[in-house]
Amino acid sequence: MKGEFVMLSTSRVAVLGAILLAACGAITTLSSGTNSKVAARFAGSVEREGVSAHNFTIDHEASVEVTLTGLRPAPAPTTKIGMGLGTPTAAGNCALVDAVDSTEISGTIAGTLKKGTYCVALYDSGDVAAEPLDYSVSVTTE
Which of 110, 126, 130, 128 is nearest to 118 (CA)? Predict the structure, then answer.
């Protein structure tokens, strides 16, 4: 094993670098108050080897579900993009703690999160062609 190393594909390195360097923008606060479910919807565009991220805050420990709700222009049924959930860094990046590289429409990431600020990122996992894909994603808490 001495002297051996693993080579990552150029696109994989670009995607991982882009996710770590993505600016996360404004923060949306999800608060249940008297509602049992609260949702935020985000929309954006992912270019070839690109990433787009959005911040949100939850005001109490809650079950959270992130769902890819749309892709446009209407891609082939096999077209998928990457989707991840993480925490924003001081530099404005989104450090993913859970990700799915091949998310199709209705794909989800779910779990329980503590009170705090989090981010959701959508990124090219190899299927975005020359034309960018517009997406919509929802974050629901209970």
Answer: 110
pTM for this one? 0.73
Non-local (6+) Cβ contacts of 9 within 8 A are none
SS3 109: strand
Domain hosting 28: range is: 10-141
Q: Which two tokens stand for residue 74?
A: 């209407």
CA–CA gap between residue 123 and residue 19 (Å, rounded)? 7
The answer to the question of residue 4 being in a domain is no
113 burial class (0-12, 13-18, 19+ CB within 10 angstroms)? middle
Rounded to whole angstroms, how far apart are CA atoms 137 and 140? 10
> Is 51 a domain residue?
yes
Residue 128 DSSP label: -
State whether residue 75 is helix, strand or coil.
Answer: coil
54's tokens: 């959005």
Model confidence at 11, pLDDT cuts 50, 70, 90, reads: very low
| Cβ atoms of residues 58 and 142 within 8 Å | no
More confident residue, 85 or 74: 85
